[in-house]
Amino acid sequence: MIDSTSPGLKREKRGRTFLIPWPGPAIFLIHDTEEILTVEQWTILNMDRLPEFVRSFLPVRTLEFGIGVALILASYLAICLLDHRRLKHGATPLWSLWATSLLLANALTHTVQTVWYGNYTPGIVTAALVVLPYGTAVMRLALKEHWIRSHASLQRMLLLSLFAQAPLAALSLFLGRQLSMLVPTG
């Protein structure tokens, strides 16, 4: 599915691909800043429209969501550091590709949610304007560099990411909620 020793990292191409992991966390932070700023009010206003199993997580407070985002961002930065080292040794940025795939799946989910609810959902603006173009560019490069061997492999990766991103988001919300209880309120 993913080629861990890509010939595309040889010679002059290595310099261009060496920086691939690092824009991801910045894109994630831009996207999630929109969500942090809007999620609490949106969940309060739309709670009755959401599926019952989602309501048990609601309302989502800004602090707990922000803590969850910080946990994901820390994980993303660790992934980039790992892949930065992998690229130095001529290997594929495997974990960054998975992280980008998850980010892309999240953007697709925002698109579906916006169509489903017929109005704004937190994250849709940056999903459309920032995440989708970035994720598409990274996946095109991954195919060109043979980091991902085929379009079918890319489709499987995105499908797995679509299924994985909701439980990962739920876990970050759960941890954010638990950790937010440690923060004194005034």
TrEMBL record:
Pfam families: HXXEE
Transmembrane segments: 65-82, 94-117, 123-143, 155-176
Chain segments annotated as coiled-coil in the UniProt record: none
UniProt entry keywords in alphabetical sequence: Membrane, Transmembrane, Transmembrane helix
Top-rank taxon: Bacteria
Keyword presence, Transmembrane: yes
Protein name, UniProt field: HXXEE domain-containing protein
Native species: Noviherbaspirillum aridicola
